[in-house]
Amino acid sequence: MIIVRNSAKCKKCRQEAVSKHVHDFKSCLCGAISVDGGREYLRRAGNFEDFEDTSLHAVIIGTIRHDEDYKKALEGMKALDEVIKEYEAKLV
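The chain above was modelled as a monomer; its predicted structure follows.
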């Protein structure tokens, strides 16, 4: 997994805290939440119920060199999408 953006939004003051590099500890205006780690690691401080994670991640699944590799990768992504949908349906 690659961290593209390390951020969280405070549910109390609605400000987004963004950490851009390692040891870049950032807090929201009211101080209820903090983020740290930049694109190296994800660290949160505060109560889980006080923040909404707005980070962006990317997953590298390998280099696609042939049509057959592409088809296999696409099948894997579709299967993962179904698992995510099933999980989200259980949360409702």
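The chain has a mean pLDDT of 85.
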